[in-house]
Structure formats: C-alpha cells, structure tokens
Specification:
single chain; about 250 residues; alpha+beta; 2 domains; RNA_pol_sigma_r3/r4-like; HTH_bacterioopsin; WH-like_DNA-bd_sf; Transcriptional regulator; transcription
Length: about 250
C-alpha cells in the first residue's frame, strides 16, 4: 500500500467554514470514518478546540449555503445533511452525508470513481489547511484525480499532491485522559465543568478551587501539569505512555 496526500490551502474569505479554522488556530478536525459510493459520501468527523471556536464552527455549519471545506471544493449547490452525534465543551462528533453534484468533487468520490473499492481516505483540517490522505494499492489513477480536483477549485484555493515516501503511518494514538494521574484528570474536569475555559470565563481557578474544596495552589499545579501533558501529546500526535507517566507524576504538596 502507498500513501498519497492532497493538500488544499485557503485564502481567508474564500470559504466561510474554513475561515473559522483560520481565525481560531486551536480548532482541529479529523475524520473518524469515511465511506464513498459512486454518488454519495458519508463521514464522521471529530472537531476539537476552545469553546468559542466550536461555537463559531456550529454557527457556520448550520448555515452552509454551498459545498464547503467539509464537503468538497467546487462551491456548488449543497445536497447535504448532518447530525451532531456528541457535543462536549471542547469537542463535537459530527455525522454528515453528501450527494456529489456537477462541479462538486470530493477526494473520496473521485478516489472511488477512479479506483473502485479498496482505497482508504482520511482528512484533517487546521489553520488554512485541509489535508486528505489516500491509502491505495495502485497509483496510476491518482494523477487524474489531482487534475480533476484542480480543475474544480474556486478562486482562493490552491491544491498540491504528493506521494509519501516510506511506510504509511496511519496510527490513531491520541491523548487519553485516563492516562493522566487521577488528581490531574479530576482537576481538569472541574475546571471545564465550572467554566474556567469558557469565553468569557465563568469562574477563576480560585473560584473553582473554593467550589471543589481544595487549595488553589494545588488546583493550579494539577491543571498546569494536565495542560502540559495534553499540549505535548497533541503536538507529538501520539501518547508515549512510559516516558510521559514518569514526566508528569503527581508530586505536588
């Protein structure tokens, strides 16, 4: 199997939904599952980010007037349904169904059209970038897919295509809150539930600590350590269990 990447970059103002990612650098989306037939695409996406970014994302998602970054790149009229399967303060799980229209060509649709069954697709969105990864046995039809995508781009979008050298890495390891020390996990949960991360902030750490009945210095330490763990694992893309466990061990007074 060989991996191929289609990367689309967006100018601000070219796409209403992608503008939310541009304006909120902490917003990130990845496919959990994706399936395409000759005329329809179904997918589940996990979107994570700060509450204010997700609120903006929700608002734009409900009002999509045309084929957008979540669906495709042609800017055609939209035949699309979606449902929020799970909603949390810092994440959404979204199911969507899209029928492909004239001039509206998503990567999964074109891969299925050219290669038939047997190719796998996944995607991620962040900043001004929308990246599709395709895992396929045959690369003969990948160049025509790129050419058709390029021909359907509207102004403000650019696309690049490359074959990834080396073995494909499709691991899905992600930071798991269960790997945090219990005290740090509970501190983070309390901070989220009591609105410390809301915009505007509903409670300060001191107020959260008072409500939870623990010293503010202890809460501050635990939240800071949990945030550091999440940041490191987010950037690394996977959880290094043994090393991280030693590094974040609970040593607060």
């Amino acid at each position: 199997m060989q991996e191929f990447d289609f990367t689309v970059t967006y100018e601000e103002g070219a796409d209403d939904l992608m503008d939310v990612f541009v304006r909120h650098p902490g917003l990130y989306s990845r496919t959990v599952s994706c399936h395409a037939s000759a005329d329809t695409m179904w997918r589940v996406d996990e979107v994570t980010g700060p509450p204010d970014a997700l609120t903006a994302y929700d608002r734009h998602l409900r009002g999509l007037p045309r084929c957008s970054s979540l669906q495709g790149m042609g800017g055609c009229q939209l035949d699309w349904d979606h449902e929020v399967l799970a909603e949390r303060p810092t994440s959404r799980l979204i199911y969507s169904r899209q029928s492909e229209g004239e001039g509206c060509r998503s990567v999964p649709y074109l891969v299925t059209k050219r290669l038939g069954d047997g190719a796998l697709c996944r995607a991620q969105q962040y900043g001004n970038t929308y990246e599709w990864n395709v895992l396929a046995e045959d690369d003969a039809a990948l160049s025509p897919i790129y050419e058709e995508l390029e021909a359907n781009l509207r102004p403000g979008l650019e696309i690049s295509f490359e074959r990834v050298d080396g073995s494909p890495d499709w691991t899905t390891d992600r930071p798991d809150a269960d790997d945090l020390p219990p005290e740090q996990r509970e501190a983070l949960r309390a901070a989220i539930e009591r609105g410390y991360y809301d915009t505007p902030r509903r409670n300060s750490l001191q107020e959260v600590a008072e409500a939870e009945g623990i010293p503010v210095s202890t809460l501050q330490y635990r939240v800071t350590r949990a945030e550091a763990w999440l940041a490191k694992n987010y950037l690394s893309g996977r959880t290094e269990f043994a090393a991280e466990s030693a590094e974040i061990g609970e040593t607060a007074p």
